[in-house]
Design a protein that fits this description.
Elements: H1 12-64, H2 67-70, H3 91-99, E1 108-111, E2 117-120, E3 126-129, E4 136-140, H4 144-151, E5 165-168, E6 187-188, H5 197-201, H6 216-222
Antiparallel strand pairs: 1-2, 2-3, 3-4, 4-5, 5-6
Length: 237
């Protein structure tokens, strides 16, 4: 008669220890994976937006002539006594609707509480101008409302380079301050930049590490639209 011996698999204690180890590894790994995903989303959508917005500007030039002739630095909606945007007063939006919007795929548009307009693109990204002029623009690679809930509407030193990214369209000034924007389309914010890459990180009020973050987009652009390992801010989507 054959006698078979069966060795027990895992004891309950061993199973619990294994699950505990897996939980610790997962807890350590997930933030890394999430951050890699967030970075990839930002890289892909920044590059795509840069291409599409500048294609739109080129097409507008075909229809309206040199961009320096039709560019205008305009304000957004006026605000009434109760703090609400006044309908029909947004000159920046009228300009955008004429010269830029017809050449882009926009799925939705809304007016924000500060009077600026926000346009949404099919991939979930969004764009808005600064409140007081159309030279500064803020691009949201993903979920603009979440970003605004965390850092406020529009300009935010804490949110720039994290979940919104600064661009500039100011082709009309040939002064040294605007030399990286003169006669160009929409470029990552480089106002007053000296050309020294170190200044993009430190040494300026606009620097990505020690400043307000306006230069963060330029760091990514100059690294071939890839977020470098020494990027000083943590990306959030």
């Amino acid at each position: 008669m054959l006698r078979c011996c069966f060795k027990p698999a895992f004891t309950l204690a061993e199973v619990l220890i294994t699950l505990g180890i897996l939980g610790v590894v997962s807890a350590m790994t997930m933030p890394v994976l999430i951050q890699k995903h967030n970075r990839r989303v930002v890289e892909t959508r920044l590059k795509k937006f840069y291409s599409s917005i500048n294609q739109a500007i080129l097409m507008a030039e075909n229809d309206f002539g040199d961009k320096r002739d039709w560019y205008q630095d305009l304000k957004n909606s006026e605000i009434d006594g109760e703090g609400n945007p006044i309908e029909g007063t947004n000159e920046a939006e009228k300009w955008f609707n004429k010269y830029i919007a017809p050449y882009m795929v926009i799925i939705k548009k809304e007016t924000l509480s500060d009077g600026a307009f926000l346009v949404y693109f099919p991939d979930g990204s969004a764009l808005r101008p600064a409140t007081d002029f159309t030279r500064d623009w803020y691009f949201y690679p993903s979920n603009p409302k979440k970003c605004m809930d965390m850092y406020g509407i529009g300009y935010s030193p804490e949110g720039l380079g994290v979940c919104l990214f600064a661009f500039n369209f100011y082709p009309i000034s040939d002064s040294d301050t605007w030399k990286y924007h003169y006669n160009k389309g929409m470029e990552p914010y480089k106002c007053s930049w000296t050309g020294d890459k170190n200044q993009l990180y430190k040494g300026s009020a606009y620097s990505c590490d020690t400043g307000n973050g306006l230069y963060c987009t330029a760091i990514i652009q100059l690294n071939n639209w890839t977020i470098p390992d020494d990027y000083p801010r943590r990306i959030r989507n």
